[in-house]
Amino acid sequence: MPTSSLRGVAMPASPIRKLVPLSNKAKERGIKVYHLNIGQPDLPTPEVAMNAVKNIDRKILEYSPSEGIKSYREKLIPYYAKFDINVSIDDIIITTGGSEAVLFSFLSCLDPGDEIIVPEPAYANYMAFAISAGAVIKTIPSSIEDGFALPSIEKFEALVTKRTKGILICNPNNPTGTLYSWNEMNQIRDLVKKYNLFLFSDEVYREFCYGDSPYISAFHLEGIEEHAILIDSVSKRYSECGIRVGALITKNKEVRTAVMKFCQARLSPPLLGQLIAEASLDAPAEYMECIYNEYVERRNFLIEGINKIPGCYSPLPMGAFYTLAKLPVDDADKFCSWCLSDFEYKGQTVFMAPASGFYTCPGLGVNQVRIAYVLNREDLAAALEVLEKALEAYPGRTL
């Protein structure tokens, strides 16, 4: 029997989705599962977007241009300008979700064996996309004790070799909710300039920055305009995960030329998704304000609740809608599986993402989980109660 490729074997399983079969079996047993494992917002998609779906006036659903519909790209220019990101239509390439933007940026900028430095914990699919491109990710651990602040620049520099081609950051961060400061971002800029590196910057959560700390884009950093590659997506901004529309933005013409070859090979990004995304740019300010305020309240409620449970700790995330929490368990992978296969409280259980899948260094994140606060507060309250009861009953409890 033919066997799969070495690349296929090396591809990591998603820490967010690998327990889905256990979740499905729990539901078949009649158990209510609170999904804290995945960043699928429960908040409504903008009405203008839904109206765009209902009122499509086309006789043919044709290919769109490989770089994306011109009217949508033009309309994105003032959107980015609101965040002091100054781009032209030529800088913007529409992709099939932010995931394709990451993959195409890697394929266009990296040769097999080239290295990227990434602070971890990190979004697990970065590793998968690097494997797809034949690239190597070198990780630097950050610590829950200091809120997953960016590791010192000396630790970054210690990893630079002749094969290093870039640094990848996610700001605001998934999975930690960390928001990087001007000082941290300027140190990254200086390293990028010193070693002539790319800066891959995933900024899909820019709308969700909490407190007084500013959102800092890679495009705000002076002197690396040709080095920066911005990754974007409408999935979380407008609760439109299913339309699969993202963007790759760079002022580097040579990179854009390479990216376009991959875009042409996959023909076009989703036509209907782009029509919906374009309409979403007309969502009223009240829509985003309401969404923002709801996430702030959910964040505060969740973090307060977690830190009241004996042995649990989560720092206060300053962006996105995730947190990593430390639990009093021997192994979070086993605990998350056990919650779905062997535990229920009042006919309910919780589905969380084990944090080990967001690390590459063995042993890190063994007692941590990622929690997405994408449920309403009533469900979050129920999920916290179930979590506390699960920790009391778990055979591998360490406290």
Describe the structure using short key phrases.
globular; 38% helix; 3-stranded antiparallel beta sheet; alpha/beta; 7-stranded mixed beta sheet; 399 residues
Protein model, in words:
It is a single chain. By secondary structure, the protein is of the alpha/beta class. Helices cover 38% and strands 15% of the residues. The chain contains 13 helices and twelve strands. Strands 2-8-7-6-5-3-4 form a seven-stranded mixed sheet, sandwiched between helices. Helix 8 links the parallel strand 5 and strand 6. The longest helix has 24 residues. It is globular, with a radius of gyration of 21 Å. The protein starts with 5 loop residues before the first helix and ends in a 6-residue tail after the last helix. The mean pLDDT is 95.
Q: Can you summarize this structure?
A:
This protein is of the alpha/beta class and 399 residues long.
Give the oligomeric state. Answer: single chain
The class by helix and strand makeup works out as alpha/beta
The first-to-last residue Cα distance is 48 Å
Average pLDDT: 95
Q: Per the principal axes of the C-alpha atoms, what is the gross shape?
A: globular
Approximate helicity band:
25-40%
- The ordered H/E elements are HHEHHEHEHEHEHEEEHHHEHEEEH
Strand order of the largest sheet: 2-8-7-6-5-3-4
The number of distinct helices, counting runs of at least 4 residues, comes to 13
Low-pLDDT segments, ≥5 res: none
Report the β-strand fraction as a percent range: 5-15%
